[in-house]
Design brief:
This protein has helices spanning 28-34, 47-63, 82-94, 109-121, 135-141, 179-196, 198-212, 216-236, 251-260, 267-284, 290-302, 316-327, 353-361; strands at 2-6, 16-21, 40-46, 68-73, 101-107, 128-132, 146-149, 158-161, 166-170, 333-341, 344-352. It is of the alpha/beta class. The strands form three sheets. The chain has a seven-stranded mixed sheet with strand order 1-2-9-6-5-3-4, sandwiched between helices. The protein is globular and about 60 Å long. The relative contact order is 0.10. Bound molecules: adenosine-5'-diphosphate and zinc ion (ZN).
Amino acid sequence: MEICRVDLKEETGNSYDIIIGAGLIGNLAIELKQKPVANAYAIITDSNVKRLYGETLLKNFQAKNLHAHLISFPAGEKSKSRDTKEKVENEMLNLGFGRDSCIIALGGGVVGDLAGFVAATYMRGIPCIQVPTTLLAMVDSSIGGKVAVDTMHAKNAIGAFHQPKKVIIDMNFLKTLPKKELANGLAEMIKHALISDRDFFHFLEKNIDKILNCDLETLEQAVKRSCEIKIHIVEEDEKEKGLRKLLNYGHTIGHAIESALKYKISHGQAISIGMSYAAKLSAKNGFLDEGSVIRQNNLLEYIGLPHKLSHRKLKPREILEHIQYDKKIINKKLNFVLLNSIGDAFVSDDVSMEDLKGILGE
Ligand code: ADP
Ligand code: ZN
């Protein structure tokens, strides 16, 4: 078992631990019985995770005489809405959850973001324990305190900052995770390595077969390193003023592709394409060497992620339009994350729409 501490400078009282290990979830009820966080627990989850892990967790809580209820909603990004938030809140109100309650967010990024947002506003804010069950949620969305729901206008349009009480990463959840979901998480882990840790990139290259075969010990090391990188960035920049921008590597183009394709592409695939264009641009502008571009793309390709989108599927013009709309570009230059080398990223304010047009048109 590993413990990573998130020390927040702006809100020191809200610092918390991320605990990583195999089988941790089995101890949660015992732990809360010994050291209660609240008088009542709302375990919020989606329909898939409810069946796989939620019902067992509820039984564990009941066996320890903890006051708990399981609240679930249909799996999928569509549920990350104000409508679902209201339904969950109504259910909690009907069940009599008061200010002395705690939310256990058991699931992937959708559950973490939605349940975390419910916790942020329920009775003006109650504690939340994040229990991520997808690799993506483990290394990305459960850390940093950003919680939100989508609207018809934009993803994560309505939300808050609400730091969890703790994050419990149980590696055993990954045993049931579909390969496609594993690749989504891996894309973010590769991004973490690319922006700030050359050795970690090398570790991922060397151990990629074990990781793809779901070797939990190797995955645990990789998850821990990935969390440390995100924690470091979040600690330095809690409210997204500077350093956090590096986490957008591959995401400017990635997000544009996702929205242009109306989210009919996975996040991992979209940012993989975004990272390959960002690396190309880094090389073209004289920062990154060609060998590193190939290394990055080879690793992404090895885990089954694309580095190009056929122009038949999506025209460069359409991607550019979405970037322009998303970033509200006025003077034709945009902030864009580039690589100096593997493990060293920076924010360039010198990338023009013309540069992007050139890269996307190739
Ligand atoms: P993400 O974590 O990628 O943001 P979701 O929260 O939508 O996205 O989770 C992706 C899908 O994986 C959902 O259908 C969810 O029910 C399912 N899921 C989550 N955790 C597990 C798991 N440990 N095993 C199997 N399926 C899971
Ligand atoms: Zn992402």
